[in-house]
Inverse folding.
């Protein structure tokens, strides 16, 4: 299958994860260092929540892709799902035969990194939301969006 390179999609997917990491870490820092109510600029809260949904949607979409022929199980299945996500990150396509044949596993590594960044930050947001009396609104939004999407990601991984 021929892969159509889409540099705009690749750029947007990479920029989204970088902004997601930065905004999340900023909100975590503010929540954990300020006692009392944490007020972030409202536009940051909206942007952070939107980006959390987009990044989670990208991961959920890639993990929901139908695998060709032998779907495999366990680590084989995980590798194929992360290669699909890595293919999106590197070429702008959600799936292709080329992604499955990637001999150096670069796409699998990028897909795994992308998915683990989302899952770890989502879990951190949930933990901070639970342990902090007054977390920033962005942390609460990130936690609730991540919780919902992590459930979808896990469901798609096993379906």
């Amino acid at each position: 299958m021929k892969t159509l390179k889409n540099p705009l999609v690749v750029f947007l997917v990479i920029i989204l994860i970088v902004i997601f990491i930065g905004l999340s870490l900023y909100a975590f820092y503010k929540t954990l260092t300020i006692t009392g109510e944490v007020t972030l600029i409202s536009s940051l809260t909206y942007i952070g929540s939107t980006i959390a949904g987009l990044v989670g949607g990208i991961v959920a979409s890639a993990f929901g892709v139908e695998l060709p022929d032998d779907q495999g199980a366990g680590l084989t299945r995980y590798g194929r799902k992360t290669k699909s996500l890595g293919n999106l990150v590197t070429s702008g396509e959600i799936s292709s035969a080329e992604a499955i044949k990637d001999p150096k596993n670069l796409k699998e590594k990028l897909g795994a990194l992308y998915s683990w960044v989302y899952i770890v930050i989502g879990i951190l947001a949930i933990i901070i939301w639970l342990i902090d009396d007054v977390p920033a609104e962005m942390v609460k939004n990130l936690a609730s969006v991540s919780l919902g999407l992590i459930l979808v990601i896990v469901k798609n991984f096993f379906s």
